Amino acid sequence: MSHWEAQYQRSKNAATLDDDEADEPMPDIDLEELPGYQTPLQQLTRHWMNERHAPDILPAQDVLLGSILDHLRRQSETIQLLRGDPSTSEEDHMRIMLAQTEVERVKFIVRSYVRTRLFKIEKYARHIIANEEVQTRITAAERDYASRHAHLLDRHFHSSVLQGLPESQTALDDSPKLIMPPMVTEPETTRPVFAHALKNTIARTHRGKVADMSRGSLMLLPFSAVTDQIANGEVELV
Amino acid sequence: MNEARQYGELATQLVTESRRSTQTDTLLKYNDSLVRSIIREQRDLEKVADVLVLATVNSANPPPQLMIIQTAIARNKRCLLAYHNHRIQFLCTLYWSLGASLPPLLSAETTSIRAKLSPHEVDYLRSYHTSVMTFRAEFSHELDITASIVQPPKELHVLVNVVRDCGVIQTESGTIDFRMGHRFMVRRSDIEHLIVQGYLEEV
Fold first, then answer.
1. Percent of chain B topping pLDDT 70
2. What is the DSSP code string of A156-206?
3. What domains can be seen in chain A, in order of their start residue?
4. Number of neighbours of residue B21 by Cβ within 10 angstroms
5. How far lies B149's CA from each of A14, A73, A182, B73, B193, in Å?
6. How far apart are CA B162 and CA B178, in angstroms?
7. Is A161 within 8 Å of B156 when comparing Cβ atoms?
8. Would an 8 Å CB–CB cutoff place B33 in contact with chain A?
9. Which of A37, A186, B23, B86 is the most exposed, having the fewest neighbouring CB atoms within 10 Å of its CB?
Protein backbone atom coordinates (compact mmCIF):
# COMPACT_ATOMS: atom_id res chain seq x y z
CA MET A 1 0.00 0.00 0.00
CA SER A 2 1.42 3.37 -0.96
CA HIS A 3 1.70 6.17 1.54
CA TRP A 4 -1.19 8.00 -0.06
CA GLU A 5 -3.43 4.96 0.25
CA ALA A 6 -2.47 4.53 3.89
CA GLN A 7 -3.38 8.14 4.48
CA TYR A 8 -6.71 7.65 2.78
CA GLN A 9 -7.38 4.54 4.78
CA ARG A 10 -6.70 6.38 7.97
CA SER A 11 -8.98 9.30 7.22
CA LYS A 12 -11.67 6.77 6.46
CA ASN A 13 -11.03 5.23 9.85
CA ALA A 14 -11.24 8.61 11.50
CA ALA A 15 -14.50 9.26 9.70
CA THR A 16 -16.09 6.03 10.89
CA LEU A 17 -14.82 6.83 14.34
CA ASP A 18 -16.87 9.99 14.32
CA ASP A 19 -19.90 8.13 13.09
CA ASP A 20 -19.57 5.59 15.87
CA GLU A 21 -19.27 8.37 18.33
CA ALA A 22 -22.61 9.80 17.38
CA ASP A 23 -23.88 6.26 17.90
CA GLU A 24 -25.51 6.14 14.53
CA PRO A 25 -26.54 2.69 13.34
CA MET A 26 -24.80 1.12 10.35
CA PRO A 27 -26.35 2.35 7.11
CA ASP A 28 -27.37 -1.12 5.83
CA ILE A 29 -30.42 -1.23 8.13
CA ASP A 30 -32.23 2.05 8.24
CA LEU A 31 -33.17 1.89 11.90
CA GLU A 32 -33.39 5.63 12.24
CA GLU A 33 -36.52 5.66 10.16
CA LEU A 34 -38.29 3.26 12.50
CA PRO A 35 -40.48 5.14 14.95
CA GLY A 36 -39.30 4.82 18.51
CA TYR A 37 -35.80 3.61 17.63
CA GLN A 38 -33.17 4.96 19.96
CA THR A 39 -29.41 4.75 19.79
CA PRO A 40 -27.67 3.16 22.79
CA LEU A 41 -26.63 6.58 24.00
CA GLN A 42 -30.20 7.87 23.79
CA GLN A 43 -31.36 4.81 25.67
CA LEU A 44 -28.79 5.36 28.37
CA THR A 45 -29.75 9.01 28.66
CA ARG A 46 -33.37 7.99 29.14
CA HIS A 47 -32.49 5.42 31.81
CA TRP A 48 -30.28 7.98 33.48
CA MET A 49 -33.11 10.53 33.66
CA ASN A 50 -35.58 7.91 34.86
CA GLU A 51 -33.16 6.78 37.54
CA ARG A 52 -32.59 10.32 38.73
CA HIS A 53 -36.30 11.02 39.05
CA ALA A 54 -37.50 7.72 40.47
CA PRO A 55 -37.66 7.29 44.26
CA ASP A 56 -36.98 3.54 43.97
CA ILE A 57 -34.14 1.67 42.26
CA LEU A 58 -35.04 0.82 38.67
CA PRO A 59 -34.00 -2.44 36.98
CA ALA A 60 -30.29 -2.48 36.15
CA GLN A 61 -29.35 -2.04 32.48
CA ASP A 62 -26.22 -4.18 32.53
CA VAL A 63 -26.37 -5.25 28.88
CA LEU A 64 -26.78 -1.71 27.60
CA LEU A 65 -24.22 -0.32 30.04
CA GLY A 66 -21.78 -3.11 29.21
CA SER A 67 -21.97 -2.44 25.48
CA ILE A 68 -21.50 1.29 26.02
CA LEU A 69 -18.51 0.68 28.27
CA ASP A 70 -16.98 -1.64 25.65
CA HIS A 71 -17.57 0.98 23.02
CA LEU A 72 -15.94 3.65 25.20
CA ARG A 73 -12.89 1.46 25.73
CA ARG A 74 -12.49 0.68 22.03
CA GLN A 75 -12.99 4.32 21.15
CA SER A 76 -10.33 5.45 23.62
CA GLU A 77 -7.89 2.87 22.27
CA THR A 78 -8.48 4.05 18.70
CA ILE A 79 -7.93 7.64 19.76
CA GLN A 80 -4.67 6.76 21.52
CA LEU A 81 -3.49 4.91 18.42
CA LEU A 82 -4.31 7.73 16.02
CA ARG A 83 -2.83 10.38 18.29
CA GLY A 84 0.44 8.52 18.56
CA ASP A 85 0.70 8.20 14.79
CA PRO A 86 2.91 11.00 13.41
CA SER A 87 1.27 10.90 9.97
CA THR A 88 -2.19 11.83 11.29
CA SER A 89 -3.16 15.04 9.53
CA GLU A 90 -4.17 18.30 11.14
CA GLU A 91 -7.76 17.78 10.09
CA ASP A 92 -7.81 14.33 11.65
CA HIS A 93 -6.50 15.78 14.89
CA MET A 94 -9.49 18.08 14.91
CA ARG A 95 -11.77 15.08 14.44
CA ILE A 96 -9.97 13.17 17.17
CA MET A 97 -10.49 16.06 19.55
CA LEU A 98 -14.22 16.03 18.84
CA ALA A 99 -14.37 12.29 19.42
CA GLN A 100 -12.40 12.68 22.62
CA THR A 101 -14.73 15.36 23.92
CA GLU A 102 -17.70 13.18 23.12
CA VAL A 103 -16.09 10.26 24.98
CA GLU A 104 -15.69 12.47 28.05
CA ARG A 105 -19.32 13.53 27.85
CA VAL A 106 -20.59 9.98 27.55
CA LYS A 107 -18.41 9.05 30.52
CA PHE A 108 -20.06 11.82 32.48
CA ILE A 109 -23.51 10.32 31.88
CA VAL A 110 -22.34 6.81 32.75
CA ARG A 111 -20.75 8.13 35.94
CA SER A 112 -23.79 10.08 36.97
CA TYR A 113 -26.03 7.09 36.25
CA VAL A 114 -23.90 4.69 38.26
CA ARG A 115 -23.55 7.12 41.14
CA THR A 116 -27.30 7.81 41.28
CA ARG A 117 -27.88 4.10 41.74
CA LEU A 118 -25.10 3.89 44.28
CA PHE A 119 -26.67 6.69 46.29
CA LYS A 120 -30.01 4.87 46.44
CA ILE A 121 -28.30 1.61 47.29
CA GLU A 122 -26.56 3.21 50.25
CA LYS A 123 -29.78 4.79 51.40
CA TYR A 124 -31.84 1.59 51.21
CA ALA A 125 -29.05 -0.88 51.98
CA ARG A 126 -30.88 -2.67 54.80
CA HIS A 127 -34.11 -2.77 52.85
CA ILE A 128 -32.28 -4.31 49.88
CA ILE A 129 -30.54 -7.11 51.75
CA ALA A 130 -33.83 -8.08 53.40
CA ASN A 131 -35.82 -8.01 50.18
CA GLU A 132 -35.19 -10.47 47.35
CA GLU A 133 -37.37 -8.70 44.83
CA VAL A 134 -35.14 -5.61 44.96
CA GLN A 135 -32.05 -7.78 44.60
CA THR A 136 -33.25 -8.98 41.20
CA ARG A 137 -33.20 -5.38 40.01
CA ILE A 138 -29.54 -4.68 40.77
CA THR A 139 -26.25 -6.03 39.47
CA ALA A 140 -24.02 -8.43 41.40
CA ALA A 141 -21.51 -5.68 42.15
CA GLU A 142 -24.30 -3.46 43.46
CA ARG A 143 -25.63 -6.31 45.58
CA ASP A 144 -22.21 -6.83 47.14
CA TYR A 145 -21.93 -3.14 47.77
CA ALA A 146 -25.34 -3.05 49.46
CA SER A 147 -24.50 -5.87 51.84
CA ARG A 148 -21.09 -4.37 52.60
CA HIS A 149 -22.70 -1.03 53.30
CA ALA A 150 -25.46 -2.40 55.54
CA HIS A 151 -22.83 -4.33 57.47
CA LEU A 152 -20.65 -1.24 57.86
CA LEU A 153 -23.50 0.84 59.21
CA ASP A 154 -24.55 -1.89 61.62
CA ARG A 155 -21.03 -2.14 62.92
CA HIS A 156 -20.71 1.58 63.36
CA PHE A 157 -23.99 1.87 65.27
CA HIS A 158 -23.05 -1.07 67.37
CA SER A 159 -19.60 0.12 68.35
CA SER A 160 -20.54 3.73 68.98
CA VAL A 161 -23.98 3.38 70.60
CA LEU A 162 -25.54 -0.02 71.04
CA GLN A 163 -22.78 -1.85 72.84
CA GLY A 164 -22.92 0.71 75.67
CA LEU A 165 -26.62 0.21 76.27
CA PRO A 166 -28.20 -2.36 78.60
CA GLU A 167 -28.63 -5.75 77.00
CA SER A 168 -32.35 -5.46 76.34
CA GLN A 169 -31.76 -2.40 74.14
CA THR A 170 -28.90 -3.54 71.94
CA ALA A 171 -30.99 -4.59 68.94
CA LEU A 172 -30.91 -2.14 66.07
CA ASP A 173 -34.60 -2.52 65.24
CA ASP A 174 -37.06 -1.29 67.82
CA SER A 175 -40.02 -3.42 68.72
CA PRO A 176 -42.47 -0.71 69.85
CA LYS A 177 -43.38 0.12 66.26
CA LEU A 178 -46.52 1.88 67.37
CA ILE A 179 -44.69 4.87 68.71
CA MET A 180 -41.64 4.83 66.44
CA PRO A 181 -41.20 4.90 62.70
CA PRO A 182 -39.33 1.79 61.49
CA MET A 183 -35.53 1.84 61.49
CA VAL A 184 -35.24 0.52 57.93
CA THR A 185 -35.53 3.24 55.30
CA GLU A 186 -37.75 2.16 52.43
CA PRO A 187 -38.25 3.89 49.11
CA GLU A 188 -41.24 6.17 49.10
CA THR A 189 -43.02 4.66 46.11
CA THR A 190 -46.04 6.95 46.30
CA ARG A 191 -43.94 10.04 45.67
CA PRO A 192 -45.34 12.07 42.77
CA VAL A 193 -43.35 12.04 39.53
CA PHE A 194 -43.80 13.73 36.16
CA ALA A 195 -44.50 10.95 33.70
CA HIS A 196 -44.21 11.52 29.96
CA ALA A 197 -45.99 8.90 27.84
CA LEU A 198 -43.96 7.58 24.89
CA LYS A 199 -46.82 5.32 23.78
CA ASN A 200 -50.54 5.15 24.49
CA THR A 201 -50.86 3.49 27.86
CA ILE A 202 -52.86 3.32 31.07
CA ALA A 203 -51.68 4.17 34.57
CA ARG A 204 -53.33 2.61 37.62
CA THR A 205 -52.93 4.18 41.03
CA HIS A 206 -52.99 2.08 44.20
CA ARG A 207 -56.44 3.41 45.03
CA GLY A 208 -57.77 1.80 41.86
CA LYS A 209 -58.03 4.96 39.81
CA VAL A 210 -57.24 4.61 36.14
CA ALA A 211 -55.65 7.34 34.06
CA ASP A 212 -55.52 7.21 30.26
CA MET A 213 -52.18 8.37 28.98
CA SER A 214 -52.09 9.15 25.31
CA ARG A 215 -48.79 9.36 23.52
CA GLY A 216 -46.94 12.59 24.32
CA SER A 217 -49.05 13.50 27.34
CA LEU A 218 -47.45 14.61 30.56
CA MET A 219 -48.96 13.70 33.93
CA LEU A 220 -48.18 14.06 37.60
CA LEU A 221 -48.70 10.61 39.11
CA PRO A 222 -47.56 8.58 42.09
CA PHE A 223 -44.44 6.63 41.14
CA SER A 224 -46.10 3.29 41.94
CA ALA A 225 -48.71 3.93 39.22
CA VAL A 226 -46.13 3.99 36.43
CA THR A 227 -43.42 1.60 37.71
CA ASP A 228 -44.21 -1.13 35.16
CA GLN A 229 -44.69 1.34 32.32
CA ILE A 230 -41.22 2.76 32.99
CA ALA A 231 -39.71 -0.71 32.99
CA ASN A 232 -41.17 -1.59 29.58
CA GLY A 233 -40.39 1.81 28.08
CA GLU A 234 -43.91 3.14 27.62
CA VAL A 235 -43.31 6.02 29.98
CA GLU A 236 -40.30 8.16 30.82
CA LEU A 237 -39.78 10.43 33.79
CA VAL A 238 -38.97 14.06 33.17
CA MET B 1 -30.15 10.35 87.82
CA ASN B 2 -30.47 14.07 88.37
CA GLU B 3 -34.02 14.59 89.58
CA ALA B 4 -34.29 18.12 88.24
CA ARG B 5 -33.93 16.89 84.65
CA GLN B 6 -36.73 15.59 82.48
CA TYR B 7 -36.42 12.29 80.69
CA GLY B 8 -34.94 12.75 77.28
CA GLU B 9 -33.68 16.26 77.82
CA LEU B 10 -30.09 15.33 77.00
CA ALA B 11 -31.18 13.53 73.86
CA THR B 12 -32.94 16.69 72.73
CA GLN B 13 -29.67 18.56 73.14
CA LEU B 14 -27.95 15.97 70.99
CA VAL B 15 -30.52 16.21 68.20
CA THR B 16 -30.37 20.00 68.39
CA GLU B 17 -26.67 19.71 67.67
CA SER B 18 -27.38 17.72 64.51
CA ARG B 19 -29.89 20.31 63.44
CA ARG B 20 -27.42 23.10 64.04
CA SER B 21 -24.87 21.21 61.98
CA THR B 22 -27.30 20.91 59.07
CA GLN B 23 -28.30 24.55 59.21
CA THR B 24 -24.77 25.89 59.28
CA ASP B 25 -23.47 23.14 57.00
CA THR B 26 -20.51 22.48 59.29
CA LEU B 27 -19.42 19.42 61.13
CA LEU B 28 -19.41 19.95 64.89
CA LYS B 29 -17.01 18.13 67.17
CA TYR B 30 -18.16 14.68 68.21
CA ASN B 31 -19.91 15.21 71.55
CA ASP B 32 -18.51 12.26 73.43
CA SER B 33 -19.47 13.42 76.92
CA LEU B 34 -23.11 14.03 75.98
CA VAL B 35 -23.34 10.64 74.26
CA ARG B 36 -21.90 9.01 77.37
CA SER B 37 -24.36 10.77 79.70
CA ILE B 38 -27.27 9.64 77.57
CA ILE B 39 -26.02 6.08 77.64
CA ARG B 40 -25.78 6.40 81.42
CA GLU B 41 -29.33 7.72 81.54
CA GLN B 42 -30.42 4.68 79.53
CA ARG B 43 -28.88 2.33 82.07
CA ASP B 44 -30.55 4.18 84.96
CA LEU B 45 -33.91 4.12 83.21
CA GLU B 46 -33.52 0.42 82.55
CA LYS B 47 -32.94 -0.21 86.27
CA VAL B 48 -36.04 1.76 87.24
CA ALA B 49 -38.05 -0.13 84.63
CA ASP B 50 -36.79 -3.49 85.87
CA VAL B 51 -37.85 -2.67 89.43
CA LEU B 52 -41.29 -1.63 88.22
CA VAL B 53 -41.71 -4.79 86.15
CA LEU B 54 -40.81 -6.98 89.12
CA ALA B 55 -43.11 -5.08 91.47
CA THR B 56 -46.14 -5.37 89.21
CA VAL B 57 -45.55 -8.81 87.78
CA ASN B 58 -48.90 -10.05 89.08
CA SER B 59 -51.16 -7.23 88.02
CA ALA B 60 -52.98 -7.30 84.70
CA ASN B 61 -52.18 -3.80 83.49
CA PRO B 62 -48.68 -2.37 83.37
CA PRO B 63 -48.36 0.78 85.48
CA PRO B 64 -48.47 4.05 83.52
CA GLN B 65 -45.07 4.97 84.90
CA LEU B 66 -43.54 2.02 83.08
CA MET B 67 -45.04 3.16 79.80
CA ILE B 68 -43.49 6.58 80.21
CA ILE B 69 -40.08 5.14 81.03
CA GLN B 70 -40.17 2.82 78.06
CA THR B 71 -41.12 5.62 75.73
CA ALA B 72 -38.20 7.62 77.10
CA ILE B 73 -35.84 4.70 76.55
CA ALA B 74 -36.99 4.22 72.97
CA ARG B 75 -36.77 7.90 72.24
CA ASN B 76 -33.29 8.32 73.71
CA LYS B 77 -32.03 5.38 71.72
CA ARG B 78 -33.45 6.73 68.49
CA CYS B 79 -31.93 10.13 69.16
CA LEU B 80 -28.52 8.56 69.71
CA LEU B 81 -28.76 6.60 66.48
CA ALA B 82 -30.04 9.63 64.59
CA TYR B 83 -27.12 11.72 65.82
CA HIS B 84 -24.58 9.16 64.67
CA ASN B 85 -26.35 8.57 61.38
CA HIS B 86 -26.49 12.27 60.68
CA ARG B 87 -22.74 12.59 61.20
CA ILE B 88 -22.03 9.62 58.95
CA GLN B 89 -24.19 11.10 56.20
CA PHE B 90 -22.38 14.40 56.51
CA LEU B 91 -18.98 12.73 56.35
CA CYS B 92 -19.92 10.69 53.30
CA THR B 93 -21.17 13.77 51.46
CA LEU B 94 -17.88 15.46 52.29
CA TYR B 95 -15.96 12.39 51.18
CA TRP B 96 -17.63 12.36 47.76
CA SER B 97 -17.30 16.10 47.30
CA LEU B 98 -13.54 15.70 47.78
CA GLY B 99 -13.40 13.24 44.92
CA ALA B 100 -13.69 10.08 47.03
CA SER B 101 -10.32 10.31 48.68
CA LEU B 102 -9.51 9.89 52.33
CA PRO B 103 -6.30 11.91 52.82
CA PRO B 104 -8.00 15.33 52.77
CA LEU B 105 -10.32 14.10 55.53
CA LEU B 106 -7.91 12.15 57.67
CA SER B 107 -4.43 13.53 57.09
CA ALA B 108 -2.66 15.30 59.92
CA GLU B 109 -2.41 18.54 57.90
CA THR B 110 -6.12 19.11 57.84
CA THR B 111 -6.54 18.60 61.55
CA SER B 112 -9.78 20.57 61.50
CA ILE B 113 -11.82 17.59 60.27
CA ARG B 114 -9.94 14.76 61.88
CA ALA B 115 -10.06 16.35 65.33
CA LYS B 116 -13.84 16.46 65.16
CA LEU B 117 -14.26 12.74 64.59
CA SER B 118 -14.69 9.93 67.04
CA PRO B 119 -12.31 6.96 66.62
CA HIS B 120 -15.24 4.85 65.41
CA GLU B 121 -15.98 7.39 62.71
CA VAL B 122 -12.39 7.25 61.48
CA ASP B 123 -12.71 3.45 61.32
CA TYR B 124 -15.99 3.79 59.49
CA LEU B 125 -14.52 6.14 56.89
CA ARG B 126 -11.61 3.78 56.26
CA SER B 127 -13.87 0.77 55.69
CA TYR B 128 -16.27 2.86 53.62
CA HIS B 129 -13.40 3.95 51.42
CA THR B 130 -12.32 0.32 50.93
CA SER B 131 -15.87 -0.60 49.96
CA VAL B 132 -16.14 2.24 47.44
CA MET B 133 -12.77 1.34 45.93
CA THR B 134 -13.89 -2.28 45.49
CA PHE B 135 -16.95 -1.06 43.63
CA ARG B 136 -14.89 1.33 41.53
CA ALA B 137 -12.64 -1.52 40.42
CA GLU B 138 -15.63 -2.91 38.45
CA PHE B 139 -15.27 -0.01 36.01
CA SER B 140 -11.52 0.53 36.16
CA HIS B 141 -10.94 -0.32 32.48
CA GLU B 142 -13.26 2.32 31.17
CA LEU B 143 -13.67 5.19 33.58
CA ASP B 144 -13.31 6.46 37.10
CA ILE B 145 -16.78 6.56 38.63
CA THR B 146 -15.59 8.67 41.54
CA ALA B 147 -14.77 11.67 39.36
CA SER B 148 -16.93 14.77 39.53
CA ILE B 149 -20.56 14.67 38.40
CA VAL B 150 -21.40 18.28 39.06
CA GLN B 151 -20.67 19.83 35.65
CA PRO B 152 -20.77 17.97 32.36
CA PRO B 153 -17.46 18.51 30.52
CA LYS B 154 -17.71 21.11 27.74
CA GLU B 155 -14.08 21.20 26.70
CA LEU B 156 -11.21 18.76 26.82
CA HIS B 157 -8.65 21.18 28.14
CA VAL B 158 -8.70 23.63 30.93
CA LEU B 159 -6.47 26.53 31.98
CA VAL B 160 -5.45 26.24 35.62
CA ASN B 161 -3.57 28.27 38.19
CA VAL B 162 -1.49 26.35 40.70
CA VAL B 163 -2.61 27.36 44.18
CA ARG B 164 -0.52 24.88 46.17
CA ASP B 165 2.54 22.87 45.15
CA CYS B 166 1.53 19.36 44.23
CA GLY B 167 4.70 17.97 42.71
CA VAL B 168 5.16 16.15 39.42
CA ILE B 169 2.00 14.76 37.85
CA GLN B 170 1.69 12.33 34.94
CA THR B 171 -0.53 13.73 32.23
CA GLU B 172 -1.45 12.73 28.74
CA SER B 173 1.22 14.98 27.25
CA GLY B 174 4.02 13.99 29.58
CA THR B 175 4.86 14.92 33.17
CA ILE B 176 4.24 18.38 34.53
CA ASP B 177 5.74 19.86 37.67
CA PHE B 178 2.97 21.93 39.23
CA ARG B 179 4.62 24.77 41.13
CA MET B 180 2.74 27.47 42.94
CA GLY B 181 1.90 30.52 40.87
CA HIS B 182 2.34 28.81 37.50
CA ARG B 183 -0.34 28.48 34.89
CA PHE B 184 -0.95 25.43 32.68
CA MET B 185 -3.25 24.34 29.89
CA VAL B 186 -3.98 20.68 30.65
CA ARG B 187 -6.44 17.96 29.89
CA ARG B 188 -9.31 18.21 32.35
CA SER B 189 -9.63 14.52 33.12
CA ASP B 190 -5.94 14.31 34.05
CA ILE B 191 -6.07 16.87 36.80
CA GLU B 192 -9.72 17.14 37.80
CA HIS B 193 -9.06 15.55 41.19
CA LEU B 194 -6.46 18.23 41.91
CA ILE B 195 -9.02 20.96 41.28
CA VAL B 196 -11.48 19.21 43.60
CA GLN B 197 -8.86 18.92 46.32
CA GLY B 198 -7.92 22.56 46.00
CA TYR B 199 -4.40 22.28 44.56
CA LEU B 200 -5.35 23.87 41.25
CA GLU B 201 -7.81 26.56 40.35
CA GLU B 202 -9.64 27.03 37.08
CA VAL B 203 -8.93 30.36 35.42
1. 95
2. HHHHHTGGGS-GGG--SS-S-TTTS--SS----TT-EEEEEESSSEEEE-T
3. 3-186 (1.20.58.1030), 188-238 (3.40.5.60)
4. 16
5. 29, 20, 32, 42, 12
6. 6
7. no
8. no
9. B23
| A197 touches A217 (CB < 8 A) | yes
A114 touches chain B (CB under 8 A): yes
B109 has pLDDT over 90 = no
Is the same domain home to B80 and B178? no
pLDDT surpassing 50 at residue A3: no
User: What is the interface pTM, i.e. ipTM, of the complex?
Assistant: 0.82
Going from the C-alpha of A141 to that of each of A47, A61, A117, B132, B139, the distances in angstroms are 19, 13, 12, 11, 10
Q: Which residues of A touch B78 (CB under 8 A)?
A: 174, 180
Q: Is A216 helix (H, G, I), strand (E, B) or coil?
A: coil
Closest residue in B to A178 (Cα) is: B71
| A107:B143 CB<8 A | yes
The span from the CA of A183 to the CA of B84, in Å, is 14
What gap in Å lies between CA B36 and CA A130, rounded to an integer? 32
Q: Which domain holds residue B164?
A: 157-202
What is the reported pTM?
Answer: 0.81
Report how many domains make up chain B. 2
C-alpha distance from A25 to closest chain B C-alpha (Å): 22
Q: Which of A53, A112, A104, A49 is nearest to A76 (CA)?
A: A104
- Residues A105, A50: contact at Cβ < 8 Å? no
